[in-house]
Amino acid sequence: MVRSSRHQGFDFRFPPILKKLKRGPQVILPKDLGTIVAFSGMNKKSVVVDAGAGSGFSNVFFGSIAKKVYSFENREEFYGIAEKNIKRSGLNNIFLSNESVFEGIEKIEGEIDIINLDLPNPENIFNSKFKLSEDGYIIAYLPHMEQVALFAKIAKEKGYDCFILEAIVREIMSRERGTRPQNIGLMHTAYLVFCKTVDSLEKK
Amino acid sequence: MVRSSRHQGFDFRFPPILKKLKRGPQVILPKDLGTIVAFSGMNKKSVVVDAGAGSGFSNVFFGSIAKKVYSFENREEFYGIAEKNIKRSGLNNIFLSNESVFEGIEKIEGEIDIINLDLPNPENIFNSKFKLSEDGYIIAYLPHMEQVALFAKIAKEKGYDCFILEAIVREIMSRERGTRPQNIGLMHTAYLVFCKTVDSLEKK
Amino acid sequence: MVRSSRHQGFDFRFPPILKKLKRGPQVILPKDLGTIVAFSGMNKKSVVVDAGAGSGFSNVFFGSIAKKVYSFENREEFYGIAEKNIKRSGLNNIFLSNESVFEGIEKIEGEIDIINLDLPNPENIFNSKFKLSEDGYIIAYLPHMEQVALFAKIAKEKGYDCFILEAIVREIMSRERGTRPQNIGLMHTAYLVFCKTVDSLEKK
Amino acid sequence: MVRSSRHQGFDFRFPPILKKLKRGPQVILPKDLGTIVAFSGMNKKSVVVDAGAGSGFSNVFFGSIAKKVYSFENREEFYGIAEKNIKRSGLNNIFLSNESVFEGIEKIEGEIDIINLDLPNPENIFNSKFKLSEDGYIIAYLPHMEQVALFAKIAKEKGYDCFILEAIVREIMSRERGTRPQNIGLMHTAYLVFCKTVDSLEKK
User: Fold this and answer.
1) 3-state DSSP call for residue C178?
2) Which residues, in sequence order, are bridge partners of residue C178?
3) Which domains, from first to last, does chain A contain?
4) Does the model's pTM come out above 0.90?
5) Which of B21, B29, B35, B200 is the most buried if burial means most Cβ atoms within 10 Å?
6) In the B/C pair of chains, how many CB contacts fall below 8 A?
C-alpha cells in the first residue's frame, strides 16, 4: 500500500494505477486529483502541464486520462523518482523535463488545456508565455491561505477569473456495530485555485 | 450556467464539457464525479457501466475519460433527456439502453472495469451476471446511511470488500477584504461505496 | 495534558476546569460539550441529568455551568473514577449515584431542564417517568447512524420533536510559513440528537 | 424563530434563551458560542468581557452562564438593540457601556477570565491595560484568514500563546426515507482564536 510520509501513514486508498508506483514524499492525494479532473473537465483530449513532477504520482494519474502530459522537475532527487514511476506506469504520453516549468512551458507548441502547479511561487507562471485553450484552466495546489490570496490576486491582475476549492473527504465505516465516519482522518492537504481567462468566461 | 434543482440553485462550477448540456434534475455533481474517477482510477482504457443515466451528466463526464460507457435508463422521461445530452456532447463512445441495468449488464461481453450505480436498490447488481476486471470496482452513490449499510452488508456477503467515502467540497472566496470559505454551501449529496472482489485484493 | 485513549493521543484542548481531572476512557470532548450547552441553552439555572457518568468529565463541565447535575453510573469501575474527578473539581452541585439513570431519574423531584445521555440504549429513557421543563431537552450522544435513526424514531413516537447535529471542529495553524488547517484531525466522535416535547414546540 | 440576515434565512436552532430576543444582524451563532464556552471553560464563576455587543445575543448567552459580563458597543444603532435584548432576557449581570472596549476595559477592577472580541481590529486589545486571570483567555472571532494570521502574530509578540479553531456543524435529518446530512448548510461563519499568556501555560 502506498503511503504518504507527509500525512503520518494514513491509508489514502490509492487507485490501482498509483498502487504500482514507488512512494515518494508529498504526493497529491486522490481526493485532490479527483477535484482537479472534475472541476477542470480534464479528459482524453486534454493537453496537460503538470509541475513540479515530485514523485510522478500526478503525472501518472493525469497521463492515464489526458492525451499528453508535459511535466517539469528541476530538483535532481525528484526527477529520478518521477522518471522511474513514469516508466513503471507503462504510459508513453508523459514528457518529463528537468528544467523549470516557467521556462519549459514556453517551448510547448500548440494549446495547453490544463496547467497544474504544485510548487513554490506558482504565480511566476503569469510571467511565462504559453497558449491556454479557450476553456483552459491554470490550477494551483497551495497548502496555505496566504499563498491562495497572493495567487488569486496576481491572477486577477493578469486578466484571470478564479474560484478556489477545498476538498474534505471522510471515510465512513459500516460494520455490524453500526455505520459512522472514522474518528481520525485527513483534515487538510491544500487549497485548489482554478483560474480561467476572463475572455473565455465572457464568451459564454 | 447549469444548475441542479435538487440543490436549490447553488452554482456548482460544472466543467466545460458539462456546461453544454441541458440541465435535468438530480445530477451527480463534480465533487462526486471526481471522487469516483480518482478512487477507482478510471482512465482512457476503462470500460464503464453507469446507471441510471438520469440526465446523462455522468455518462458524458465518464465518456470524456473512459474508453466505453454503457448506460441504462428505463424511466422514459429521463431516457429522452440523457439521449439528447449525449448527442450534444459529441461523444460517440456512450451506449445508452432503455432497459434496466440489472438485465442489460448481462449482455455486455468482455470485462467491465467500473460499475457506477445511482439508482434505487443498487444491491440488486449482485444478482446479475457480469465480468468485473481484476482491479474493477462497483460503486454505489447513496444519499442515505441506511442504504450505505445495506449495500455494504450485501456486498460483503457476496465476496466484496468495500470502503465508503463522503466528499465535502467548500468554496473559498479571496477578495480585497480577505480570504474565507463561503458562508452557505453544499453539505451533502451522497455517500460513495467502492467495492472490489476480495480475490482481487488478496492477489496484491 | 488530558488525552483521550479513544482518539489515539490527539490533543483536544481541554479547558482549565477539565485539565485538573484524571483522564479516563471515552470522554465527551469539548467540541461536543460546547454544542450541547449552546443548542440546549444550558445555564446557571439549569437542572441537568447526565448519564452515564463515565470519567465524570461531562459531569464536571456541566456542573461548572448548571445549578445542579444529577449523574448516574452503574458500572463499578467508572463510578470510582467519576467520584474522584468530581471531588477533584471542587464542585458541590453534582450528585452521583451508582444506579441506572432509567431508575434513578424517577426519584428526582422537580423539573429537569436537560437530560444528556451517553450510554447504550438511551431510548429506554422514554420508558421512565420524569418531569421535563417546558423548554427542556433530552439529548443523546450516539456514535453510529443506526443508533441515531432508532432514537429519533422512538422519540417521535413518544411525542418528541428532534433535531440532530454533528460538530466537526478543525484546528488551524498560523505560523511564519503561513496559515492552514492541521493535516490530521478528529473527523468524528458522535452525533447529538436534541429532543423537545411537541407540546413545548407548539406553544411557541 | 430568530434568523440571521447574514446567513440568508437559514434556521440556526437558537436555544430557548435566545429565541426571546429581537433579531439583529450578524450575531454569533450557537455553534460558535458553544465552542467559545467549551474551549475557554466559561462557567458560573467567570468574569467575561464581550465586545462589540452587536445585537446582544452573545451578551445574553454568556450572561446566562457567567458571573458577570461587561459589554461594550460604541455604534449607536447597535447599542439600542443590545440594550433592549439584554432587558428582554431578564438577566441582571450584564453591564453594557457605549464606549470602545479598548478604553472601557481599562476601568474594570479585578481580574477578567474571558475576553471575547467580535469587532474590527481586535488586536488593539493588546495596547489596553487589563488583568487577565491565570487561566484567562482572549478570544477573537474573525471571519477572514488574514485577520487570524495578524491577530495570532501580534498576540505571540505580546507574550501570548494561541490556538485557532473552526467549527463546522452539520444538521442531520432522520426520516422514514432514511438518515443523512442536510444538503445545504452553514459552511463558515468565523475562525476563533484562543490566546493565553505564555506565563500561565508554563506554570502547568
Assistant:
1) strand
2) C175
3) 28-202 (3.40.50.150)
4) yes
5) B35
6) 8
